[in-house]
DNA sequence: CTGTTAGCGCATTCAC
DNA sequence: GTGAATGCGCTAACAG
């Protein structure tokens, strides 16, 4: 209940100067062994803990990084945040959280509040509808670096970490081809997402490697809603070439597609095999999980993004824009 | 790139005292309209933002609340955190995050770091194996209130929000009875969890209401792992009284149980109906979701816990321990 | 209505 | 090796 002990208090009790105590606490070489011991001993006895708010104020540094992302209830992001937290904690940083809930206006507000809160830097995964990056650019003036991950802005002068879906898709389709599938369908995502063309490219590349020709009617798009996916499935099943395997945009899409297929009396993963992206815990709870998943490494993305941010905080004069692209990879169950 | 503007700067440019500027910025009534306008105008022009770290230091208050919970990848907690965040933001608080990953040692460390970081208060859901609450009790000395939710300590002198599973279970079993089921099984959880006896009590109560007698062999326990649940199912299916409905401890358990039943050739939700707890997004992605779920209101728990915490921060002299118990409730799909 | 002064806790520069 | 003095940016108590 009494106020927490301060350096001043220790100094008075020991009849020393505050500065001496401060130095002793920091193991400053110029302090004699005897006094250093005395000081540290008393500090321990009093349960002295430096007042971080004072340090933050004085050092103009809060050892706090802000993290802005769309939605923690998406497994991808809750995995990513663990990577962020781990990397931050290992470097003695704390993590301030803000969910945009995929609302650009809310994202902007969060960024501003975090700026005022004087976070040292920001880790960001954009809201779906963020088109204007002015609120991020404004941070430059305040020397608050930003590292984006996964959902990154469409511009070049930024730091980011992302996952390339092309390699994983190539592996997924190749895997299906090796299993003997010759007609493979794909439920792809909205055109705006960078990941969509990447998936298509990987798909085509796998066919090309086997000298098979690409049939555009076997790629359909979903807006990622349940309805969109069901419509996509309907289209795919109505196609004159009957697919024996389907690459779904992610596990959520896969699950909707599987459900639709089951309703149509299709024997899932027998008559129609599914492959998906994400490999999230979700898939282990599916009744008919995809036979293989393309891993996007959310934890690693978060971890690396944070490492970059912290290195940026170290040498403020770093000019180059860092970008790490992680290759996605197929994981067979 | 230049340092952010300060009150001092504004004061000098306007040939006023710092305190005048400070008051003008805060719309203090004693400041003349003319000067107030002048100050606010210049502040806007300079993009002045108060330095929060200075305010935190000076006010001995950071407007930050720490949140310590086991695991964000559990849907329950990621929902809860949104409630916490919303309540916090509405009251101009920020949220500092720490996951214990169900490790008591890590939890303890997080609490200490947050204490040093001078959070104003803490929202906590305990790690599974936390048995020692000393690190929380230590916070009292520093006047840092703690509000627990869902996974709460087994002691009385605390603030908490929790959900009583008894009412929901009563509703769930009654629902099944009304649908004509006469032999109902339950997969309950580990004995240590407070929620386990609550479920059993609700179960018995529903039977009693219908003047049906309770058969202990129809309640089996799972340790919540997949294997534990499968063993429980095996036991239940081997019982001489064949259940036509099962109440599963949560959606994860339900899914494992459903999978096992399917493997045994049982027509799920036809021959064997499932009811579960949580009603998490997970269940909407199951191929055979439970026909009804007992809602535990994670968002509301987080929200209310935060409201309590913030009220505690308002009147520090509040002595009474607040506890809110939310009744669980059945949601039929 | 406005100015002056002090102090929050700490690290740091400059003396001795 | 140690002490004294300064200032980070802000609010608030006290004067006028």
TrEMBL record, chains A, B:
GO MF entry, a single one: DNA-binding transcription factor activity
Keywords: DNA-binding, Transcription, Transcription regulation
Domain of life: Bacteria
Domain HTH lacI-type: 5-59
Pfam families xrefs: LacI (PF00356), Peripla_BP_1 (PF00532)
Protein name: LacI family transcriptional regulator
Organism lineage string: Bacteria, Pseudomonadati, Bacteroidota, Chitinophagia, Chitinophagales
